[in-house]
Amino acid sequence: MFRFIFKRLFFSLPLLLGITFLTFLFIQIAPGDFLNKLRLNPQISSQTIEIYEQKFHLDKPFITQYAYWLKNIFKGDFGYSFSYRASVVKIIKSRALNTFILSLSSLLFTWVFVIPLGVVAALNRNKFADRLLSFFSYIGISVPSFFLAFILLYFATFSGWLPLGGMRSIRFDEFSFLGKILDIGKHLIIPTVVLSLGSICALGRIMRANLLEVLGSTYILGAKARGLSNRRILYVHALKNALNPMITIFGYQFSALLSGAALVEIIIGWPGLGMVMLEAVQAQDLYLVMGSVLVGGAFLIMGNLVADIMLAYFDPRIRYER
Amino acid sequence: MKSRLGNSVLVVLGVLYLLVMFAPFFSPYSYDQDDVLNSYSPPTKIHFLNIREQQVGLFIYGHSFEVDDYYRRIYSEDKTKIYPINFFVKGFKYKVLGLLETDRHLFGVREGKVFLLGADLKGRDIFSRVLYGGRISLSIGLIGATISFVIGLLVGGASGYFGGKVDNLLMRLCEMVMMVPSFYLMLALRASFPPNLSSAQVYFLIVVILSFIGWASTARIIRGMAISLRENDYIYAAKACGLGHFKIIVRHILPHTLSYAVVAIVLSIPAYILGEAALSLLGLGIQEPQASWGNLLSGAMGIVNIRLYPWILTPGLFILVTVICFNVLGETLRDKLDPKRKIM
User: Fold this and answer.
1) Residue A189, domain member (yes or no)
2) What is the extent of the structural domain holding A152?
3) What ipTM was reported for this prediction?
4) Which residues 217-246 of chain A have a CB within 8 Å of chain B?
5) Which one in A77, A83, A312, B292 has a CA-CA gap of 20 to 30 Å to B100?
6) Which CATH entry fits the domain spanning B130-343: 1.10.3720.10, 3.10.20.30, 3.10.180.10, 3.40.50.970?
7) Do B179 and A19 touch (CB under 8 A)?
8) Residues B70, B62: contact at Cβ < 8 Å?
């Protein structure tokens, strides 16, 4: 198992390298850079800009710049953000944590609903409850996240107590520890629902299909023939096997969430990686873009790895060592 | 039941495409015709009967506004002014499908203004802008999905057919594209082009960006199919006859993946529509005064605007309906073409 994990991590390094190189290339192709803005600012002398250029090797050819950036990464230095005037590590660290919190809460919210809904739909196959669920799941799968976010924000303006975007209240610092958690939790509600709805609907349908497939198999028939109660068959035998394929999805979904949350973050105003990325792209803040792409890619790799490991752990038929 | 649903979404999609193809005919105003006096004018109520004035038939009342304490405009109907809605009225000049010049529109009013879905900040008719914007949103889905599928088919076919080093190289490339979070990739790609491009250039750019993201997953699946197909006798026969590799892939391998490809193209169209909408929503895509369903929603980025002028969200409904239609259509097609995969 450890060999497998090691191998996977080792092989993902060139992928990360390729991605960052491509991003670097794309940004360098774009006309202008962040220093252009500084050059236009009469308060900043040309010496300062030269110092900047030398410090970050911006006067060197593109390949050298990339090499310097890469070298610094291994030292734990992700570079300097020109627009925030702070080190990239510092900005990304707090933002990545926020994205992580949001992804985790959406994940929990999703799976609390997926399994019961899938079971209910499968057990009432082609009856009213199933039809109703599948009707709503069609809409849920199709509704664009940004549109759902707008709609929920619209209703939130009437409710009065749901916060309208952001992550913390203005008086956050005055709250007690418990109050702080509650405050963030309250802010989490809208983005969590927005991010979860689509996957609840999509995964609920998969769960339903899985369970139906398992329920139609011969060992369930055998269990019935041996006189096991329906409840025991469902919860002990069928559910366990139906959940197995879902475990992979669980891992992949986590990595997809970490990157997919970006647009919702921007609309809701959740200070996560997506917001940073957009701001960085708009300001042509080279190192900040590179940093967020790198962290986003790393998240994705980790998520996929966790998915594979979990699958091997839960399904004894799968072994990675050969 | 499934196929009836499929037929009805086909009708809905047909109506949508007709509406946007003949957008100038169906829209009472041009997409960039602004009117400061009607900034954020709510949807116009359409009436049928006014007994006192003895008016029968579709008509609207004139409207005027007062400015309240918060400098908000409160629009109200002026019941003394009655403007009948006319059909096939004269309006702005346009060319039908770029050929025939005319100035007839399906409906309109000679005086006053009719806003079916309200007006935006600059007093432009949202209904007209939705129809014009649909031209971009609806075509980008078709073009983008087709382009990325052609790439995906060729790469996947070659990868599976040749195997070995070619396969390894192409698949690592696929993984790389698939691994970058798509939203980040979209932003990074957009960042590599100057922000002030013309609308046509941006349109082309968005198609390229979205296709660049989308081809990889297709390629992987087609590769899997091609691997199993290449061992067939007829492939060996084709080789023995001296057919070139490219011709074997295109003529003998890819046609077998067609039923999968058609379903997957239809199911992937929403992703392109949503991708364009997301880019335009953030101000990185189609620019004002050009309309697209995404940038029509960008007015809703301010929470105050949503609360005060909820009708600016209506373009989102068009996106929703289109996406639902393509999803249903794709699943219906899948059931038809590939009955084995049907979910019980």
Assistant:
1) yes
2) 96-271
3) 0.84
4) none
5) B292
6) 1.10.3720.10
7) yes
8) no
